[in-house]
């Protein structure tokens, strides 16, 4: 699988700084000039989950292995990108390949750091970026729709199913709205068709307000404006100071705790960001726990047991018999597998079982 979250925004707003903090590397060049990034940087990030440590304690697991999410640091885009300005289409192609968008908005004032639009206005910046994505989608749909409609009229079943969804998406774009506005009342089947259209504005969005160090714990007036926008749209929202996070990422665990206390942060903003990205993608976690390791695995909400097993190994899915299942709360409260079994809280689940977040699973299979 591998779910990918793309870091998108205007040039020089802190995307690469954030990426480096997330991946705890200096893999992406971050510097004070627009279009510093050209080729996208890709990195895997461990998804922080305090439950793993609790499970490992009970099972005396030798190792803790978190699940991972991929972040992609993409080139900045400017007004006119959809028509080839700046890095134009190349950049749009990179966005097309991700599953969700973390849209970084500059909310910090610093005269020394160039802002391509000349002033701090995250709402206007968000509109600039979104407009380019919408123009690109509009262009793509307007090009594709006539041929599709012709096919639909000629009784092509597939085309007939796609056409109304394309038309609805087009109508939204013509009214200046992103296609994700139709996600809320999209049936699962329609959703598959919509995803197949491979548009830019149908991807879920998380606004990341990049604030100054002193605003990291509280946010500021600009980030509050973005919060209101995110709430109105049903989009994700996180306040973070990329500059601080990059510093924190360099520290040891002890130094980190101390540093965060001085600046009033309860947990690294990165943890909040990673979790928000995970939620945005409708991902949940199940665990496998034993003396060797306590390990987290990522699945889409709604995944049934065999497909969940397939994340570990395709053989597990092909030869799936059943899933020995204990809910996380039960596992902890009853002191592990034996206790849960004795209390009747361990269940054998079959092929139709929809795995829940936090399930501790043990798959039985034959190959
Ligand atoms: N919260 C912050 N406060 C102050 N300065 C910051 C903050 N976040 C990033 N910067 C600075 O802004 C500059 C641009 O950062 P960065 O290279 O990460 O931007 P970018 O969005 O990746 O740009 P590009 O689109 O050109 O690749 C760097 O000098 C970085 O140190
Ligand atoms: Mg960059």
Automatic annotation (TrEMBL):
<comment type="function">
    <text>ATPase that binds to both the 70S ribosome and the 50S ribosomal subunit in a nucleotide-independent manner.</text>
</comment>
<dbReference type="InterPro" id="IPR006073">
    <property type="entry name" value="GTP-bd"/>
</dbReference>
<dbReference type="Pfam" id="PF06071">
    <property type="entry name" value="YchF-GTPase_C"/>
</dbReference>
<dbReference type="InterPro" id="IPR027417">
    <property type="entry name" value="P-loop_NTPase"/>
</dbReference>
<dbReference type="InterPro" id="IPR013029">
    <property type="entry name" value="YchF_C"/>
</dbReference>
<comment type="similarity">
    <text>Belongs to the TRAFAC class OBG-HflX-like GTPase superfamily. OBG GTPase family. YchF/OLA1 subfamily.</text>
</comment>
<dbReference type="Pfam" id="PF01926">
    <property type="entry name" value="MMR_HSR1"/>
</dbReference>
<dbReference type="GO" id="GO:0005524">
    <property type="term" value="F:ATP binding"/>
</dbReference>
<feature type="domain" description="OBG-type G">
    <location>
        <begin position="3"/>
        <end position="282"/>
    </location>
</feature>
<dbReference type="InterPro" id="IPR031167">
    <property type="entry name" value="G_OBG"/>
</dbReference>
<dbReference type="InterPro" id="IPR004396">
    <property type="entry name" value="ATPase_YchF/OLA1"/>
</dbReference>
<dbReference type="GO" id="GO:0043023">
    <property type="term" value="F:ribosomal large subunit binding"/>
</dbReference>
<dbReference type="InterPro" id="IPR004095">
    <property type="entry name" value="TGS"/>
</dbReference>
<dbReference type="InterPro" id="IPR012676">
    <property type="entry name" value="TGS-like"/>
</dbReference>
<dbReference type="InterPro" id="IPR012675">
    <property type="entry name" value="Beta-grasp_dom_sf"/>
</dbReference>
<keyword id="KW-0547">Nucleotide-binding</keyword>
<protein>
    <recommendedName>
        <fullName>Ribosome-binding ATPase YchF</fullName>
    </recommendedName>
</protein>
<dbReference type="GO" id="GO:0005525">
    <property type="term" value="F:GTP binding"/>
</dbReference>
<dbReference type="InterPro" id="IPR041706">
    <property type="entry name" value="YchF_N"/>
</dbReference>
<keyword id="KW-0067">ATP-binding</keyword>
<feature type="binding site">
    <location>
        <begin position="12"/>
        <end position="17"/>
    </location>
    <ligand>
        <name>ATP</name>
    </ligand>
</feature>
<dbReference type="InterPro" id="IPR023192">
    <property type="entry name" value="TGS-like_dom_sf"/>
</dbReference>
<keyword id="KW-0460">Magnesium</keyword>
<dbReference type="GO" id="GO:0016887">
    <property type="term" value="F:ATP hydrolysis activity"/>
</dbReference>
<dbReference type="GO" id="GO:0046872">
    <property type="term" value="F:metal ion binding"/>
</dbReference>
<dbReference type="GO" id="GO:0005737">
    <property type="term" value="C:cytoplasm"/>
</dbReference>
<keyword id="KW-0479">Metal-binding</keyword>
<feature type="domain" description="TGS">
    <location>
        <begin position="282"/>
        <end position="365"/>
    </location>
</feature>
